[in-house]
């Protein structure tokens, strides 16, 4: 069956992911291959000290990305997209999205990027004996209580960004278990009952089952697209109601699916605006670590997650400056070629200590106890200040905080990794970040041909799985989706490992400079 016929007969699957800097709609065929896409660029806002997106921006972005997708379908295949076999919504995890009985938003959407819940996160971690990171939804809720914010008493429903969009499209207040595990600790596929009782005892009797979405595993029924939901996504009225949706998931879960890293001893590293590594565990960790999140796969398996708020934002800013400099002398170069040239330059950097140091902290970074970000680049007067050394330093900086967390898992907890699958914007320039990441984490890093498709492809696969639940998700991915997938694996190189160890020695020492900048540079 050709692609046009698949589209017209509704034998395709649609995934939409709301990432930090773009909203991507991905259409895949019945062989799970991408056939069309649409993208909308957007940015979070810093409003009164809060990182946020307006909900009007959410719908403008969703409509634009979907319209871009339908235009792509029309251009490529000469037909209109009216329906699909199933669809799904994914988005950045965590944060605070609260509504009253009438569906009115009660406070600004507080995203994962905010580091304003230190007191709540600390108190809940002690109460539960379980690490509650600052960005988790329960930390935001409890901090609002500690701050005596008036809206708390009016909360009827609280969810994540993916859960909110799914609710608007279907009327169903549900959430995939992976995304739910970033709201509150999960046990046996649901919110941890003991911890929920403990929270109720310190929160004037709030019962999470009353205000949090119902938790679903991958493949479970999650509702259908309503007429109102179809109109929200496609104001032209072309998209038909009645499409089945998979449980909404977080970007961590879709990253695991997109890299086929959902079984024990597999893992992936996602590197974009933020960077996080996720390792599917064979057993529980021996103790609580403030630097490690415990979340789950989309099927509820325990996952150790090292999440760092900052990754490519500082890199991107420097690349833009270089682009401006090139443009100022009247030369044009594509962004793809510019990134390739600058990233590849890093591979010819000098060995040993070059006297350069950078910190990529656009926002706060809980792993290093920083409430705010101050991107910094410093160097010794006698530093080897070359383009190659500078670019390697920026790339190493994007991996520095991740390394601090990963050492806890691999050294203290003796977690074993056979290899990591890399995906995200950092890996777009072939081979460079992959080679440096392999050395930084001292583990082979594989990048699949499909890695560039990202979370939108991952949630489209979860949508397709709704029709394949006679198999486990693991079997569906291994036997159907990735059966003939090609991956390029790079092993750690001893020389780069040594260079990164030298970098990390000075990186740790220089954190004092970063903390002084936060305290004094305003």
Can you describe what's shown?
With 522 residues, this protein is of the alpha+beta class. Helices cover 39% and strands 19% of the residues. The protein is built from 17 helices and 24 strands. Helix 14 (432-441) packs across helix 17. The longest helix is centred in the last third of the chain and has 27 residues, at 494-520. It is globular. The mean pLDDT is 94.
The main sheet comes to:
7 strands, mixed
Q: What's the number of domains?
A: 3
Strand order of the largest sheet: 16-17-15-14-22-23-24
Overall 3D form = globular
Question: What's the CATH architecture name of the largest domain?
Answer: 2-Layer Sandwich
Cα distance, first to last residue?
61 Å
Estimated share of beta-strand residues = 15-25%
What are the main properties of this structure?
522 residues; alpha+beta; Nucleotidyltransferase, domain 5; 7-stranded mixed sheet; 5-stranded mixed sheet; globular
Topology of this structure?
Layout lengths: L2 H6 L4 E6 L3 E7 L5 E8 L3 E3 L2 E3 L2 H23 L8 E6 L5 E3 L18 H11 L8 H10 L10 E3 L1 H10 L3 E3 H4 L5 E2 L2 E2 L1 H10 L5 H4 L2 E3 L10 H7 L15 E2 H8 L8 E5 L3 E6 L12 E4 L5 E7 L4 H16 L6 H11 L10 E4 L3 E3 L4 E3 L3 E4 L7 H26 L7 E4 L8 H10 L3 E4 L5 H12 L7 H9 L5 E4 L3 H27 L2
Parallel strand pairs: 1-6, 6-13, 9-12, 14-22, 22-23
Antiparallel strand pairs: 1-2, 2-3, 4-5, 7-8, 10-11, 14-15, 15-17, 16-17, 18-21, 19-20, 23-24
Helix pairs in contact: 3-4, 10-15, 12-13, 13-14, 13-17, 14-17
């Amino acid at each position: 069956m050709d692609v046009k016929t698949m589209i017209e007969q509704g034998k395709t699957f649609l995934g939409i992911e709301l990432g930090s800097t773009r909203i991507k709609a991905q259409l895949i065929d019945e062989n799970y291959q991408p056939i069309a896409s649409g993208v909308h660029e957007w940015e979070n806002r810093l409003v009164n000290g809060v990182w946020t997106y307006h909900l009007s921006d959410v719908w403008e972005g969703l409509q634009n990305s979907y319209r871009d997708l339908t235009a792509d379908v029309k251009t490529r295949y000469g037909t209109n997209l009216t329906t699909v076999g199933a669809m799904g919504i994914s988005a950045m995890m965590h944060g605070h999205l609260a509504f009253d009985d009438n569906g009115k938003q009660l406070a600004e959407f507080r995203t994962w990027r905010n580091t304003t819940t230190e007191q709540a996160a600390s108190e809940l971690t002690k109460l539960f004996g379980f690490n509650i990171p600052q960005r988790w939804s329960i930390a935001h809720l409890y901090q609002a209580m500690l701050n005596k914010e008036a809206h708390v008493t009016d909360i009827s429903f609280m969810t994540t960004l993916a859960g909110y969009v799914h609710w608007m499209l279907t009327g169903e207040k549900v959430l995939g278990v992976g995304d739910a595990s970033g709201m509150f600790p999960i046990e046996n596929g649901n919110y941890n009952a003991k911890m929920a009782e403990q929270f109720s005892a310190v929160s004037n009797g709030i019962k999470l089952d009353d205000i949090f979405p119902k938790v679903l595993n991958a493949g479970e029924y999650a509702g259908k697209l309503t007429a109102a939901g179809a109109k929200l996504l496609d104001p032209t009225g072309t998209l038909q109601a009645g499409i089945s949706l998979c449980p909404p998931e977080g970007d961590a879960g879709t990253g695991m699916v997109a890299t086929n890293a959902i079984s024990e001893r597999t893992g992936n590293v996602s590197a974009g605006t933020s960077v996080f590594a996720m390792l599917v565990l064979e057993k529980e960790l021996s103790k609580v670590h403030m630097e490690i999140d415990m979340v789950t796969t989309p099927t509820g398996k325990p996952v150790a997650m090292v999440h760092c708020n900052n990754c490519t934002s500082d890199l991107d800013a420097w690349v833009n400056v270089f682009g401006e400099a090139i443009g100022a002398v009247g030369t044009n170069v594509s962004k793809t070629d510019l990134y390739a040239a600058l990233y590849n330059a890093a591979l010819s950097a000098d060995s040993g200590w070059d006297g350069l140091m950078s910190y990529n902290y656009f926002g706060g970074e809980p792993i290093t106890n920083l409430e705010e970000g101050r991107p910094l680049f410093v160097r010794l007067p006698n530093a080897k200040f070359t383009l190659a050394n500078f670019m390697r330093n920026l790339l190493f900086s994007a991996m520095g905080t991740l390394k601090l967390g990963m050492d806890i898992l691999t050294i203290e907890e003796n977690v074993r990794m056979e290899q990591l699958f890399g995906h995200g914007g950092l890996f777009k320039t072939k081979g460079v970040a992959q080679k440096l990441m392999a050395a930084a984490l001292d583990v082979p890093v594989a990048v699949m041909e499909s890695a560039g498709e990202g979370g939108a492809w991952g949630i489209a696969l979860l949508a397709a799985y709704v029709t394949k639940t006679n198999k486990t998700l693991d079997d569906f991915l291994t036997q159907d989706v990735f059966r003939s997938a090609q991956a390029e694996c790079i092993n750690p190189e001893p020389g780069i490992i040594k260079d990164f160890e030298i970098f990390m020695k000075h990186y740790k020492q220089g954190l004092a400079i970063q903390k002084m900048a936060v305290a004094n540079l305003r």
